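Exercise 7b. Backbone tokens:
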């Protein structure tokens, strides 16, 4: 679960720290993207999963482009990677963001009719034509399970079919509608992802025909599942790619847009044990840092996978042997829990605790100013 390079780093770096293994990421993204050997399918990466510059540089070597969801992400990515193709999505794009994006973005994923009208006006005054995919909110076929569904229900994301039809039939200057974008669920396995893509593609073909749009592009979104309970259970990219290949409508480029499943496995959050306590029959290991650095287990309601590494027992602090231990941080709130009741052979003050699957929606979603503890270090190996 921990690569040798990361193991070296956590033994020497000041902790708490995020440690990213760029070699691990490079191999993972290479394997993921090479599963899509059909030239009609392209892979974009959703930057919101992790904006770390070193990670983005590695990922950009393998993908067909990046999806940014704010003016901040757009400026950040452009300064790092001046030439990578970009799609600009996300609700609530401001006038300034739309204007700035016109000169540098390849595709706009437009979230509302009003946004399309504003984009049209800005494109006309800039003397350019913006290429647009209408982001739609469609019912999701029986995905069930652990999946988080955002489609077919009231949502601030995208347009429902009626609004999409109004936007498409508006015939605005300065914008060329080339297709449809749909990101409707997350936490899906390969068959569920393919079933979702299939219904989006069928809907998009019908929509194009009904609206007289020559459908050239459909972005079927991200949401490929990862399993925090079993880090070895990976999304089956080969199976998804094969299934998707069989679904590509003629004349259409299909894009997928994973975020989490791209970088989650290549980041670790490492810390050390400050105290070991018994309380009313429970055992707690209090770790340096906390969920203000690694908010993922709180937001997702899971136990973050971890290993304990014996390190420095010279302080003579307490320890516990062969017990279920709850790993917490330094925050004064009962929500500050990394993992509950994890069976450990032994944990002592001074040990290292290394949390895996911390490469996506981890540091960047955390409320790091809460309680004014120091920020974690960030180490790339
Ligand atoms: C967040 C997001 C993604 C990536 O989702 P993952 O679950 O991280 O794969 C892709 N597209 C859009 C529009 C998103 O908002």
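Sequence design result:
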């Amino acid at each position: 679960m921990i690569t040798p390079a990361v193991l070296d780093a956590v033994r020497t770096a000041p902790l708490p720290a995020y440690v990213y293994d760029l070699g691990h990421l490079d191999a993972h993204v290479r394997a993921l993207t090479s599963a899509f050997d059909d030239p009609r399918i392209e892979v974009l990466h959703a930057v919101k999963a992790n904006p770390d510059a070193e990670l983005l540089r590695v990922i950009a070597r393998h993908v067909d482009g990046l999806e940014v969801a704010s003016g901040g992400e757009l400026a950040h990515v452009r300064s790092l990677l001046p030439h990578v193709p970009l799609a600009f999505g996300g609700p609530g794009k401001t006038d300034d963001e739309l204007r700035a994006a016109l000169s540098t973005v390849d595709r706009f994923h437009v979230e509302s009719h009003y946004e399309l009208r504003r984009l049209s006006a800005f494109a006309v005054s800039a003397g350019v034509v913006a290429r647009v995919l209408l982001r739609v909110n469609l019912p999701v076929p029986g995905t069930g399970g652990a999946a988080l569904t955002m489609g077919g229900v009231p949502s601030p994301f995208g347009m429902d079919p009626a609004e999409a039809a109004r936007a498409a039939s508006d015939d605005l200057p300065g914008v060329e509608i080339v297709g449809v974008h749909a990101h409707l669920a997350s936490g899906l396995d390969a068959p569920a992802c393919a079933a979702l893509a299939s219904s989006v593609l069928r809907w998009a073909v019908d929509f194009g025909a009904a609206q007289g749009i020559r459908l050239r592009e459909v972005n079927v979104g991200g949401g490929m599942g990862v399993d925090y309970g079993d880090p070895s259970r990976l999304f089956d990219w080969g199976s998804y790619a094969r299934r998707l290949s069989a679904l590509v409508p003629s004349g259409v480029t299909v894009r997928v847009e994973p975020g989490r499943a791209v970088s989650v496995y290549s980041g670790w959050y490492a810390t050390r044990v400050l105290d070991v306590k018994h309380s009313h029959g429970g055992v707690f290991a209090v770790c340096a840092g906390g969920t203000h650095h690694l908010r993922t287990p709180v937001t997702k309601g899971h136990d973050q996978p971890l290993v304990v590494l014996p390190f420095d027992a010279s302080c003579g602090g307490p320890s516990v042997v062969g017990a279920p231990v709850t790993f917490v941080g330094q925050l004064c709130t009962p929500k500050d829990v990394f993992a509950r009741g994890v069976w450990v052979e032994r944990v002592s003050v001074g040990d290292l605790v290394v949390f895996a699957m911390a490469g996506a929606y981890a540091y960047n979603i955390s409320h790091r100013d809460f309680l004014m503890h120091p920020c974690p270090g960030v180490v790339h190996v």
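Instructor comment: The two ends are 16 Å apart (CA to CA). The pocket of pyridoxal-5'-phosphate is lined by residues 46, 48-49, 67, 69, 89, 183, 186, 221-224, 257-261 (CB under 6 Å).
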